[in-house]
Each structure stands twice: as C-alpha cells, then as structure tokens.
Amino acid sequence: MLDAVIIGSGGAGLSAAIELGNYTDNFLLITRCALGQSNTMMAKGGIQIAVGANDSLRKHFNDSLAGGNYKNDEKLLHLMISKSRGILKWLNELGMDFDKMDDSYDLRSCTGISEKRVLSRGAETGSAIMKVLLDRIKRSPVNISINTSLEGIKKKKEYFLLKTCRNGRDGLIETKNVILCCGGRSNDFARQHKMGTTNQPCTSSGFYHSLRVLNLAMRDANSFQLHPACISLKGPLLGTPVPETLLSLGGMFYNKTGKKIADARSKRDILSKQLLKIIRNNMGIKEGLAYKSVYLDLRNVFVQNSVDSLKSFSNFLNKLSRSGVDPRTDLIPVAPMVHYQNGGIAVNSRCETSVPGIYAAGEITGGIHGTNRLMGNSLLDILVFGNIAGRACGKSITKRRIK
Ligand SMILES: Cc1cc2nc3c(=O)[nH]c(=O)nc-3n(C[C@H](O)[C@H](O)[C@H](O)COP(=O)(O)OP(=O)(O)OC[C@H]3O[C@@H](n4cnc5c(N)ncnc54)[C@H](O)[C@@H]3O)c2cc1C
Question: 14: CA distance to ligand 1 center in Å?
C-alpha cells in the first residue's frame, strides 16, 4: 500500500513531490502524458512577487483581492502572498534566475497591479521554472508513472482505490492519501462552449466527474477566465495568448470597421466581456481565421518603447511575423479564449479537501483568486500550495507512523 499518490506533473505536482520526498519515498507520481507536459510549461509572462523598492506584500494582497472581485478566500490569499518571497529564495536555491537589469530584477507590469511586480525569464518563465523543478525531481528517488491517467477515485474504509489507465490499459492503485494537482479543466469548458482555448491538450480530463462521487466541496466551481487576446490565426500559433506584460505597455482593440473598442490594459474579465459582445454583435472579423475575432493594434508599443526593452518578447514577435502578421506594422487578429479555471476544489490552509486523506493544490483548487485571477499569481499559487500540500501530507504520514 502506498503512502500517497500525486496526480499531475505541472508546477503544483512537482512542488508537492519535492516536499513530500522529505517525509517518505513510498509514493508515486502519475501523470497523463510525458513528465512535465502541462500548462505550467506554457506560462510565458511571469510570476508576481513583491520585491520592488516601493512595493509591499500588502499592495500585492490588495491588488489580488480587487482583481478577484473581492470573492477571494482571504486567508488562502494572505498565506500565498506571505510565502511569496520564500518561494523566490527556494527557486533561486534550485537554480532559477529571473531577468535582471543592472543587478536588480527587471520587474514588469500587467493589468490590475499597482507596482511593477512580475518577475520573468524572457517570455518563457513557465518552462524555466519547470526545468529547475524537473532537474530536482530527477535527482531524487521519486517513483513516476507517465502516460497514466487517473480515471476515478473510490473511498474504501482505510484507503483510496484509484482507477487508472496507462497506455490504454486499466489499472488499480491502493493508497492512503491522494494529492490532486491535475490543473484546470479549461479544455473541457472550451469544447462544451465551442470556444478556443490557450490550454495544453494534456490537461483537463473526464476524471473531474468521478471526483464528484466523493462529494468534494467546491468553491466557485463554474468560474472560468477568458484571456482576452489570443491569436486566432489558423496554424501553430492558434490559441497563444499575447503576453500580458506586452499588453500592459499599451495597445488598443478595434472592431471590423476600425472603431476603437477597448484599451488593452483593462481587467481580463471586463475586457473579455467587451470583446465577446462586439463579436456576438457581428462586429468582429472571421475570414481565414479559426474563430470570430477583433483586431489588436500594438504598433504604438513599438514607437514608444526601445528595441532593447522589448527584447524578451522577440521570440513571440518573430513567430507572429513568420505567421504573416508583423505586429510592428499590422493589426493582429485575436479573440477571447478559455484560459483558466478560477474556481475548483475547496481547500484549507493545509491543502486538505473536505475528504480526509485527499489534498489538492494548483489550478484544480478554488478560492485563492476569487472570480478573476491576476496574471502572474498562478505560478506563485502552484509553487506555494504544491509545497504546502506535499508537506501537510508528509506530516500526516509521519504522525500516523508514530501512533
Ligand atoms: C498559455 C498559458 C500561459 C500562461 N501564462 C501564465 C503566466 O505568465 N503566469 C501565471 O501565473 N500563470 C500563467 N498561466 C496559468 C498557469 O500556467 C497555470 O494555471 C498553472 O501552471 C497550473 O499549474 P498546475 O500544476 O495546477 O496544473 P498544470 O500545469 O496544468 O498541470 C496539470 C498536470 O496534471 C496532469 N493531468 C491532468 N489530468 C490528469 C489525470 N486525469 N490523470 C493524470 N494526470 C493528469 C496534466 O497532464 C499535467 O501534467 C498560463 C497558462 C497558459 C495555458
């Protein structure tokens, strides 16, 4: 019988595994596709940590609360932000560097924040974080089963029976604890509503329904976030969100007749609603695109900012140019697409769910971000709460052993 099974190998799952490894090696991490294949790997913009000279944990808290429409679980939000500087230290110890300018962090902005607070690594922050987590995991004796999907969970008297599917073959695993780090279900939501999504195909899966059998308490379960500006060109860039750190430098949305619709620096939820309304009123564009869209104009950004200060976006901008749209001279067709699950499984400050023995961390949980997450707060959330879940589960295993 295993002490625990961690489900998912995004940032939350790997952080939980690193921490749980300090208490037991009798656990397994299962993940649906390849190790590390996740939304975390795709995160581009960065992570919010208040390290700027004029910034404070209080300002970060207040911004996040306003961003979340004051629907956040304040205790969890407070916990996340109080641990943020410790997470930066932890990442540094694991070998992670963020972009710097003259020896201090090159802090960026995004919508809804009162100080520059986003730490990034080029426009590939998620994959850089994943690299150091994966390096650490590979140096530890964590048992991992890839291409293994959780299909269902049954509660037995003293343990849980997990139904799994590995390379098409069904399996059963007995475990005393489960840590759910399976990310959000934006793919399912997008399919249901015939919308585009920014999410990795390997996230979201039907297992969510089987969780309902356990009657896990939920919080804002049906609150999803749309990213307002996702590339709608057919081809490899389809669904790629325009980095919010770039949008925060300016930019304007236009309808098909060239009428100004909105400033790109508005709040994600408000902006998405505005753009969808235009599209639904047939004032968007469609020809040659995967979804009905609007135009994003970033041309002014290139006039007002030096080439050097836009260096970290060069990868994204070059890919866009290769797709036939040069943002320096052209309007970019974009549409709001399903991006993030705001709500989810309710947890307490030890990441315990309403069913003893089941823990959850990362995008699968609800409460921390209210009904509208700020950019950069999810990468923080998954690392903070991934660690907490691994530690809480580890401590409960040790306690039971001592008894
Ligand atoms: C394109 C994009 C850009 C983003 N940019 C940013 C950003 O700049 N800053 C920021 O803070 N946030 C950003 N986000 C959001 C953030 O990346 C995610 O919310 C976060 O990484 C989720 O982490 P997670 O560990 O909870 O889940 P994921 O990273 O999604 O990992 C979930 C894991 O669970 C596995 N899994 C799922 N179902 C099962 C199952 N049934 N059985 C077994 N395994 C399963 C998946 O395969 C995956 O390995 C972005 C998201 C996207 C999609």
Answer: 12
The residue to which tokens 């500087």 are assigned: 85
Is the shortest distance between the CB of 224 and ligand 1 below 6 Å? no
Whether 340 lines ligand 1, by a CB cut-off of 6 Å, is yes
The alpha carbon of 345 and the centre of ligand 1 are apart by a number of angstroms equal to 15
Angstrom distance (rounded) from CA 229 to CA 201: 19
* CA 36 to ligand 1 centroid distance, Å: 10
Long-range contacts of 154-163 (CB under 8 A, 24+ apart): 154/213, 155/214, 155/355, 159/1, 159/357, 160/357, 160/358, 162/5, 163/210
Ligand 1: which of 15, 38, 88 to mutate, most ligand atoms within 8 Å of CB?
38
Nearest CA to ligand 1 atom 10: 376
**Which of 75, 173, 32, 90 has its CA nearest to residue 390?**
90
Pocket test for ligand 1, best of 15, 44, 182 (most atoms within 8 A of CB): 182
Tens of pLDDT along the chain (403 residues)? Answer: 999 999 999 999 999 999 999 999 999 999 999 999 999 999 988 999 999 999 999 999 999 999 999 999 999 999 999 999 999 999 999 999 999 988 899 999 999 999 999 999 988 999 999 999 999 999 998 999 999 999 999 999 999 999 999 999 999 999 999 999 999 999 999 999 999 999 998 887 767 777 888 899 999 999 999 999 999 999 999 999 999 889 999 999 999 999 999 999 999 999 999 999 999 999 999 999 999 999 999 999 999 999 888 988 888 999 999 999 999 999 999 999 999 999 999 999 999 999 999 999 999 999 999 999 999 999 999 999 999 999 999 999 998 888 7
Tell me the C-alpha distance between 341 and 71, whole Å. Answer: 14
pTM over 0.90: yes
Phi, psi of 220 (to 5 degrees): 45, 45
> In terms of CATH architecture, what is 227-338?
Alpha-Beta Complex (3.90)
Radius of gyration of the chain (CA): 21
Ligand 1 pocket, 230 CB below 6 A? no
Q: Is CATH 3.30.930.10 the classification given to domain 2-148+342-402?
A: no
Using CA positions, which residue lies closest to atom 9 of ligand 1?
376
Q: Where in the chain is the domain with CATH 3.50.50.60?
A: 2-148+342-402
